[in-house]
Prior knowledge:
Helix content is 53%, strand content 13%. It is of the alpha+beta class.
Amino acid sequence: MIPSPETLPHTVSTEPFDPDLKPVMTAAQERWYRASPGRIFWWRLCRHRLAVISAGVLALFYVSILISEFLAPYGSDSRNVHALYAPPQAVHLWHEGQWVGPFVYGYEYHLNMGTLRRVYHPDTTLIEPIRFLCHGDSYRFWGLVDSDWHLVCPAPDGTLFLLGTDRLGRDMLSRIIYGTRISLTVGLIGITISFVLGITIGGAAGYYGGWVDSLSQRLIEILRCFPEIPLWMALSAALPVRWSPILIYFGITLILGLLDWTGLARAVRSKLLALREEDFCLAAQLMGASPRRIVVRHLLPNFASHLIASATLSVPHMILGETALSFLGLGLRPPITSWGVLLNQAQNINVVALYPWLLLPVIPVILTVLAFNFLGDGLRDAADPNR
Length: 387
């Protein structure tokens, strides 16, 4: 039976309409609606916990490159001829039930005449305390100031190889810390070059179209026809052997930047081709705005989330590129120390089987790549207005 209109509940307010009545809003809602776009972006990013943790990891890495000499227990080329291929030393706090503090046991080794391998054993009678904020190997801080202060140092006449040593008796931990400076800055400088080229060429192609678009697309197609790794190897091998390590460093960075802009340029072009037909773009043209202002101030901010994600994904791509080239012996070369240079000595499977700690430089590479990927996801979600 259909109820009559008189029996239905009346849900319309009978109060007179007041045009000055403001909607009731909670404090949290009012705080959100009054916030600036930058603050809203920060709040969204903070809700992505994995991105925040990744940002903290990357911040620690990049802060460490400012004080690499201070953090490393040894100099990057300091050798200990009595500890070739020495395994990592474990840190202990107690000795025979008594508190000693942070210390390591000294090495005792013998040469296996059957395999010609150095065999190391911890000598529990040789206690070597770890020193903090101490004097150690001398260095020139950023090539400017002479100093010998270190965060941690071995005991006098002792050793402190927390990650073992290489074939020349050099501390792996110190060399990884020094290599962080080179490997991480390669990605930043390379992405700067790549972004300038990608946004400039892609923006011009998407906004002007015509012959500009055709010329840029043919150039991109030519570059993308070549296999990436062989092209990197060919250009790296073309660098003069007589160049100094610094010139080699900038040469590798330039190569990575010049070959990585094509994907970003195509993404920018496709976005601008769609956005240039919008009403706000036509309004800016009628008001006399220049093409540069329209592209930079009106079109690019509309897909900032894509640009952010591209940047955070391109940096680890360049780090992996430098690592691969250095691993193959065509990238950075000693005396420059990078993660790829350190992994170069792990090419021999026999060496890896006997001395697996030589593969430890791959750990910061994995952490950095994962951190950039997670941070890129968080930044993309925070900048996307549809989320």
